[in-house]
Amino acid sequence: MNTSAERKMGQKIARELFRDPDYIEDPVLDEYVLDIWKRLLAAARQRGELTPEMDERFAWEVLLGKDRTINAFALPGGWLGLHLGLISVTATRDELASVLAHELSHVTQRHISRLMAQEAKQAPLMLAAMILGAIAMSKSADAGNALLIGGQALATQNSLNFSRDMEREADRVGYGVLTQAGFEPQGFVGMFEKLQAASRLSDSGNFPYLRTHPMTTERIAEAQSRLQLGAPRPAPPPDLVHTMMMGRARVLSNPGVDVLRGYVSEPGSGSFNSLGRARQAGSLYSAALAHAKLRDFPQAHAALARLGPLVAGDAPAARQVSLLASEIAFQEGDLSQAVQVIDKAAKARPELIYVAQAQIKSGRAADAAQLLQTQVAVSPRDAQAWLLLSSAYSAQGLTLRAIRADAEARVAQLDYQAAMDRFRAAQDLVRKGNADHIEASIIDSRARAVDSLLREQALER
Ligand SMILES: [Zn+2]
Fold this sequence. Notes:
The chain is an all-alpha fold. The chain has 25 helices and 3 strands.
């Protein structure tokens, strides 16, 4: 299977995942994961694992799912699915990076295309449907067990599994990429130990990753021997940002009220004081966010106030606390505070999104539109920025522009039909006399471009 056929199949799957109710766009976690992912991609390029052809043809995008199950999966065409449940069990950034490096290597080593070639008798659409089915089943522990028992389902699962040799190759290549990117090799062993411990438990249904990645003693032994070949390293300093991101992943994975109450009570428990600084920070971060979810804002502020001194002197960690303070202020409806606590100098995407959404709600839609226009000019595939831009235009009564921005958000998530519906609605408005001639001509040319993408898609079937 060549790279363009693989990319097309990946696109079919990614299109469905974008529409999955568990798909989550979170500026903070997106940025955190993307930073790791970009470092790994750069390392894979340097090592020649990522060829210029694949680099250009594939998407190299990570899609987060708010599932609590522990799972990560490489898809055809360079898309990667990552569940918040997996982020929330990684003790270090290196452990998270090790999973991403392993999955990345499945793609660069063309394991997926080799599997697809073995299944060549299946139509591509069937394959895409099978992969989607397996993803859906991996989300529920019960369905997961059915997957292992049912005859037909079993056949499905086998056809999607990488061989043992492929797994070992992804471990080996992934290890090289991980260390080249500057992550600690201990990440691999730490993650393996965690998976092995989970595989001994009866509730491994929460670990669909284990079904696709059986933890053999062989894999663990190989990882350990690689680790011993390297020079001994001092233990890395505590990573407050990572523990806070774990805390964020825990709360955003929709755990239900009882679990949120558990997170909220953690910093008041007797064992809290015995935790190290990083774990205390993670625990207070979860508590503040969980309080806000439970709409107890005084307590959310109390947790934030305890978090502040812990992160003092650690600029990246302090930045995350400012972002959290802004998010909580926004949820509380204190819009001026939501903008106030943002570090204006940061100029990164999460800050921009937070400021823009507070501006839209507080009657400053024109300022928000200006910020967001710059963002989508740099990142035309930023669906969240397009959607916010659409509401900023809408608040200013710029209906045509609002519809077009909404359409662009659909394009960014590969839903060309929905985009086309919106472009047509905008064209109707123009015909009825909505005279913004420049905007009308942009809409016509974008509608033609998307129409040809739709035709291409129809031909693939
Ligand atoms: Zn694997």
